[in-house]
Amino acid sequence: MEKKKLVPKRRFEGFDGEWEERIFEDLLDSSEGIRRGPFGSMLKKDIFVSESNYVVYEQYNAISDKYNTRYNITQEKYEELQAFKLEPGDFIMSGAGTIGRISRVPEGIKQGVFNQALIRIKTNQTRTESEFFLQWMRSDNIQKKLTEANPASAMVNLVPMSEVKSWNVIVPNNKEQQKVGQFFKQLDEMIAIQQQKVEKTKALKSAYLAEMFPADGKRVPKRRVTGFKGEWGKKRIEDIADTFSGGTPNVGNPKYYRGDIPFIRSGEINSKRTELFITKLALGNSSAKFVEKGDILYALYGATSGEVGIAKINGAINQAVLAIKLKSNYNSYFLKQWLKKHKAAIINKQLQGGQGNLSGEIVRKLVIDLPSLEEQQKIGAFFKQLDEKINNAERKLEKLKAIKRAYLQEMFV
């Protein structure tokens, strides 16, 4: 039998020796280690009140790591459910649906109780460093162990808490726990700062979109590029562009598959993913249509309806993508931003058939606001630069998250 690994792959300098094998329950508070939320009948919606100093915490709080709430209860109900109250330093874990997500309760929350979809965990603070426990519970190893119940089932279920308590686990001494926990705390802070930068830049773009295009019923925008004046005109997309959607080649036929022509689907119009390819030889017999780098790609169907991007490559599109090839005197980046600004309005007013689908005819008939080509170019270039700033910030965020995932795999046993 292979000997159980008792040291992590990556370790801080100054620490050696094997980690200690313990029972999971030893890490917990001896009297209130793990408690599931109350029966649903104890927190029915008809007992909620509109205003109160006492609240109900839900699965959303564990998943999002945020502590805003929707429901209030009376002081009497709060006192009745004292066994289920949350206190700073507790951990809450999602126990249904999106299972295993864990959050540490921060200082300053409203007094409240947790509902039936949550599991509260209290640790033994003399044996278990709080930050270490949080990151350890989020590691791949523990997350996989939490969902190992009923492995033959298609449903993902949480392991019974009675079983979790009896787990054999491997942890370091408190000093190393503290070092590991502090490292991940700093990494989380870097991720949070970068997330704020992404959100701030996106909010800035939303504000510019609202002000740099005319509001409904107006002919000039609230915020104007310096040096331009006069009213904007209006035209239908079909008046300024040629449009077409593609088709779906028979990818089950080897002749149509794994060639060298990128096949762009609606979910890929804003990415460089091109994992499906069609052979050049077979394209003449398929229904796919070609687009060129710089064409506007507009998603017509399903969850991506209304998404819009600029083709980064030459390729073929399927029937869920509408290609928009602008004529001269019109700017692709300008039209892309106009379509993004009006996405919600287009979706809400124009969706067909209850399937979340748009038609090419609907898009062709859209009436857009148009300034001169020079102003279009200025606006398009401004938003292109802002999009690049957002993309760069998102890439940095993803890199930090990837670094954390790698460390979580290597710094825990």
Descriptive account of the structure:
A hairpin with a 7-residue loop joins strand 5 (91-94) and strand 6 (102-104). 34% of the residues lie in helices and 17% in strands. The chain has 3 domains: 20-171, Adenine-n6-DNA-methyltransferase TaqI, Chain A, domain 2 (Alpha-Beta Complex); 173-227 and 374-413, Bipartite methylase S protein (Helix Hairpins), CATH 1.10.287.1120; 233-370, DNA methylase specificity domains (Adenine-n6-DNA-methyltransferase TaqI, Chain A, domain 2), CATH 3.90.220.20. It is of the alpha+beta class and 413 residues long.
Largest sheet: 4 strands, antiparallel
Number of domains: 3
Q: Kindly provide the name of the CATH class of the largest domain.
A: Alpha Beta
- The portion of residues forming beta strands comes to 15-25%
The CATH superfamily of the largest domain bears the name DNA methylase specificity domains
The tally of beta strands, per DSSP, is 19
Quaternary structure classification = single chain
CATH topology of the largest domain: Adenine-n6-DNA-methyltransferase TaqI, Chain A, domain 2
Helix content: 25-40%
* CA distance, first residue to last residue: 18 Å
Number of helices: 12
Based on CA inertia axes, which overall geometry fits?
elongated
Q: Rg to the nearest angstrom?
A: 28 Å
| CATH architecture classification name of the largest domain | Alpha-Beta Complex
